[in-house]
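$ ./design --mode recover --in tokens.txt
reading tokens...
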């Protein structure tokens, strides 16, 4: 019997010990890296429980152009799946393209009234500017990262995930009901988000104003999870920057961690996947493309041991490809769960070099 923890069966420790991630690179019997990537990606895609939507026309509707300091802004509405239209913010630098581009993926934060507005300053009058400014002040040093990226010459696309902004707002406890409903329908909340992010990457790469060879994914917190997951599943992403979401699964399967509480965890839970791959193993499907991972030394959501173990697993993969210099990892000892202005400056400079 394992250690008894309130709410968990005594044998949960034994189940934890049985997780060996046999499909991970270096553990898998597949020794050809290209073949391993195909097999690992196929397994993830199988367990998304949501079919590909490649034949669904995007049918984009572009809103009026609004001028900003060095770039233009407009709303765009697209069909990422055949089920629902999704509205997002599209920023384009002044000048002659095609430009490098960033798929900007918003966080969770248990704040649902804003989605894209967490990262792109709302210029339209819908009453969300106050909430957006408050969020930027708490997590981004008062900045809107999307606007900063556009000023620096990147096309930026940021869309609402299901439950946020125009697609919400959810009440916190409604997440579990939403996830349960989708599971009963043979689908998955996390899988739907992954598929939508894949499609968003392809839509962005296909815009005339964008250089399809220079598209990156960037996110903070749950957005970071979405960024490395999209890089793993989409060849439209040339690089990814991921701030404050990487760990080894076993290191967060501890009492009190958010991942065991349900609710928000369902956006990042693919049933059955841990029987095959750990989080850093999924991210490593993107190797040897350039990837950046930042974490905060004071981040209580991700214990330091788990972050270090995940970084070590990924380093081994990039090293096996002779590309360790393309994997950049850094701990900010004084930072918690934030993406402050200093961190942003380093990420933006890195993106400028890579793209």
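writing sequence...
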């Amino acid at each position: 019997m394992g250690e008894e923890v309130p709410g968990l069966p005594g044998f949960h420790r034994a189940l934890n010990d049985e997780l060996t991630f046999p499909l991970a690179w270096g553990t898998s019997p597949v020794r050809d890296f290209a073949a391993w990537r195909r097999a690992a990606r196929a397994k993830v895609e199988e367990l998304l429980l949501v079919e590909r939507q490649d034949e669904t026309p995007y049918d984009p509707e572009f809103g009026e152009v609004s001028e900003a300091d060095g770039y233009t802004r407009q709303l765009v509405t697209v069909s990422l799946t055949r089920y629902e239209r999704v509205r997002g913010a599209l920023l384009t630098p002044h000048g002659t393209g095609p430009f490098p581009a960033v798929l900007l993926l918003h966080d969770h934060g248990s704040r649902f009234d804003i989605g894209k507005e967490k990262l792109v300053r709302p210029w339209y009058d819908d009453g969300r500017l106050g909430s957006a400014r408050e969020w930027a002040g708490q997590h981004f040093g008062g900045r809107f990262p999307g606007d900063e990226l556009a000023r620096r010459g990147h096309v930026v696309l940021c869309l609402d995930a299901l439950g946020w902004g125009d697609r919400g707002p959810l009440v916190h406890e409604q997440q579990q009901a939403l996830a349960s409903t989708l599971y009963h329908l043979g689908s998955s909340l996390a899988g739907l988000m992954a598929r939508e992010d894949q499609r968003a990457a392809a839509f962005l790469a296909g815009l005339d104003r964008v250089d399809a060879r220079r598209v990156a994914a960037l996110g903070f917190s749950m957005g970071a999870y979405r960024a490395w997951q999209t890089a793993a599943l989409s060849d439209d992403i040339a690089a990814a920057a991921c701030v404050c979401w990487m760990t080894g699964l076993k290191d967060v399967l501890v009492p009190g961690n958010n991942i065991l509480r349900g609710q928000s965890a369902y956006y990042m839970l693919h049933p059955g996947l841990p029987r095959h791959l750990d989080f850093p193993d999924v991210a490593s499907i993107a190797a040897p493309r350039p990837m950046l991972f930042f974490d905060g030394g004071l981040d209580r959501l991700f214990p330091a041991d788990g972050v270090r173990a995940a970084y070590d697993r990924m380093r081994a993969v990039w090293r096996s490809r002779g590309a360790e210099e393309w994997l950049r990892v850094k701990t900010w000892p004084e930072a918690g769960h934030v993406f402050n202005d200093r961190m942003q400056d380093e990420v933006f400079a890195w993106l400028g070099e890579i793209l």
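exit 0
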